[in-house]
Design brief:
Chain A has about 400 residues and is α+β, with helices and mostly antiparallel strands. Helix content of chain A is about 50%, strand content about 15%. By secondary structure, chain B is an alpha/beta fold. Chain B is globular, with a radius of gyration of 18 Å. Classes of the chains: A alpha+beta (about 400), B alpha/beta (about 220).
Chain lengths: ~400, ~220
């Protein structure tokens, strides 16, 4: 038995209908794949960006706001907490490492973040890809995507809350808020982290304090950078990242710093809440894409019932010439399977491309790098569409087997 | 053997009522009768495309009417060639592919010997350039392809349903002659339903079929 001659004939006969089936399937698959891959990529990338931020401490306020400001650098006016927290953390045995994070200044739209050299390397996880770490005040380390060259000098401007900055472009009022006499020289560049921090300019926390006339946070006469911060008093900071020694310690620190003028939380717990609302939105999207796939299947089925109806006589003729039922079924199934497979592959490519374009837009907006990948759910979805579509296409033929061949010849 | 149908008004009609009909092997029989008299139904009964309401249809020792559907498919493929009034070719395939199509029902490849035989049969039918798609052929040519398809596998029996009815007189004569010659060469039994006097004249025996008769409805 070799049904391929008839499959070829059927596909030639379908021509535009075949193109329509491929296009419909491709569209359904593309929408499903794009939504699924995009949503997963957003979740994974945003979670990965928060990886080095085990525990965040800040002044009481909105946890989401503090998370968005420190992890995703969606800068906002954040209240400061007492700098003495830095000193108590330095004495705490449960703390493996900690780093203050201060923000507010910009240059050419890039946020300038004050922190320690240890956190700039993500607790030693990364090393500068060019140059070196900052070693004294007045030196700066730039993220992978920052459009400055090593050796260039930058002047921070005071950022205005609620103002949106386009990275790489100097806003009009930047010039008006420049901190004169506080230039930084770029001494190094970090490798890409895939997070918004790729667009940040990192400077010693002491520089940020000094720029704002708060001293350098150290005892009189000490010009070194980094902990211990033993100034009297230590200037306030908007956020502190803490790396606890143990899980138990992490929970103890979290509850301790939830009192007495600070709040403390794990970024993961805030992300879970965000993902939950994202998940609700995803539910709507999944429902929409399921509906979309169902409609596509229904229209394909209607197309095929119409086509098979027109072909009833053709298949009856084959039977009258001695073709077994299996031959007729194979002709129909292979033809449909080819069209569906072509549609699924086209849809995968289209969906992948659409997700890629979408992540490009999201990265341009937020600096979050989304790695699009196709995973089990997408393939499962496509497999299901393929199986249901091809099996449904056999129904009209199977139904026709119930009546004698001669009745098909008469139509 | 009888065959009943329900008419449009729901009343059963006896389409055919044939006490007994024996066709000797190799006979050429012309079926004639008015439209609706059951010529096509008789051909379909013989081919096993429908089963009789009562009675049986046998081919030699094989009782075709009581075979399972799949054995009947196999029997039909190995025994029959069918020529239809409207040719029923696959217009998207070329002449050669149409002639060899029945071979693909049972085997994966059309062997070189079969292909060569198909080409010889096509040449005898006066068909040139076998790469042409049959959708582009004239009606006379299409029916010659249909006959070539029916006789190519050397069937023991050829059934033809009004093979010349949709052709003009010149083509009808040519096709009729080719059909009878092909049956002769294959030594096949030929049963041909037709109104065409010229074609009937070529067939050695003729069978008249009377119009359908209504059945007395039985009280339920």
């Amino acid at each position: 038995m070799n049904p391929f001659a008839m499959v070829l004939a059927d596909l030639r006969a379908l021509r535009w209908t075949a193109a329509a089936i491929v296009a419909l399937v491709a569209l359904a698959v593309a929408v499903g794949v794009a939504i699924g891959a995009q949503e997963r990529a957003l979740r994974q990338s945003s979670a990965a960006a928060a990886d080095d931020f085990s525990l965040l401490i800040g002044a009481p306020g909105s946890q989401t706001q503090l998370l968005m400001s420190t992890v995703y650098l969606q800068l906002d006016a954040i209240p400061l907490m007492e700098g003495s927290v830095l000193q108590s953390l330095a004495r705490d045995e449960r703390v493996a490492a900690f780093a203050p994070i201060a923000f507010g200044d910009v240059t050419r739209g890039y946020p300038i973040i004050g922190t320690t050299a240890a956190f700039a390397t993500r607790w030693g996880r990364v090393a500068p890809s060019e140059g070196r770490l900052f070693a004294r005040e007045g030196e700066a380390l730039i993220g992978a995507d920052v459009d400055y060259r090593l050796g260039e000098s930058i002047t921070p401007s005071h950022g205005v809350a609620g103002q949106t900055h386009k990275p790489g472009e100097e806003a009009e009022d930047e010039a008006g808020h420049r901190h004169a006499g506080h230039d930084h020289t770029i001494v190094g560049r970090l490798p890409p982290l895939g997070s918004p921090w790729d667009r940040a300019i990192l400077v010693p926390i002491e520089s940020v304090w000094e720029v704002h006339g708060l001293g350098n946070g150290h005892a009189q006469g000490i010009e070194s950078i980094g902990p211990p911060f033993d100034g009297v008093p230590v200037p306030g900071v908007p956020a502190i990242v803490v790396k606890p020694r143990s899980v138990a310690g992490a929970y103890a620190l979290r509850s301790q710093y939830r009192q007495g003028g600070t709040m403390a939380f794990f970024p993961a717990e805030v992300l879970v809440g965000i993902y939950r609302s994202l998940g609700d939105a995803r539910g709507v999207l999944v429902f929409a894409s399921t509906l979309n796939a169902t409609l596509v299947l229904a229209s394909i089925l209607l197309l095929l019932i119409a086509v098979t109806g027109l072909r009833r006589r053709r298949y009856a003729v084959l039977r009258a010439m001695g073709a077994p039922r299996l031959y007729v079924l194979l002709v129909i199934w292979i033809g449909m399977a080819l069209l569906m497979a072509l549609g699924c592959i086209t849809g995968l490519l289209l969906g992948g491309a659409a997700a890629g374009v979408l992540s490009g837009l999201i990265e341009a907006q937020t600096g979050l790098r989304l790695a699009i990948s196709l995973d089990k759910p997408e393939f499962l979805q496509i497999g299901l569409l393929f199986v249901i579509g091809t099996v449904l296409s056999l129904l009209p033929a199977v139904a026709s087997f119930a009546s004698p061949i001669a009745s098909g010849l008469r139509d | 053997m009888t065959l009943d149908h329900r008419g449009g008004d729901g009343r059963p009609f006896r389409v055919l009522d044939i006490p007994e009909l024996t066709v000797p092997s190799g006979a050429h029989i012309g079926l004639r009768g008015p439209s609706g008299s059951g010529k096509t139904s008789l051909l379909h009964l013989i081919a096993g495309l429908i089963v009789p309401s009562a009675g049986k249809v046998s081919w030699g020792e094989t009782e075709v009417s009581s075979l399972s559907p799949s054995s009947r498919d196999r029997w039909r493929l190995s025994t029959l060639g069918f020529v239809f009034q409207d040719f029923h070719l696959i217009p998207e395939l070329d002449i050669l592919a149409n002639i060899t199509l029945p071979t693909t029902f049972s085997s994966w490849r059309v062997g070189p010997a079969e292909r060569e035989h198909a080409e010889i049969v096509a040449a005898r039918m006066g068909l040139a350039d076998l790469r042409r798609r049959t959708g582009t052929l004239s009606r006379g040519e299409q029916q010659r392809v249909a006959i070539a398809r029916a006789v190519c596998r050397r069937p023991a029996m050829i059934l033809a349903d009004e093979p010349t009815a949709s052709l003009d007189a010149a083509h009808a004569d040519e096709v009729g002659a080719l059909l009878v010659d092909a049956a002769n060469e294959a030594g096949a039994t030929l049963i041909c339903a037709t109104h065409d006097a010229a074609l009937l004249a070529r067939l050695r025996r003729r069978l008249d079929i009377k119009a359908a008769t209504p059945i007395m409805e039985q009280a339920a």
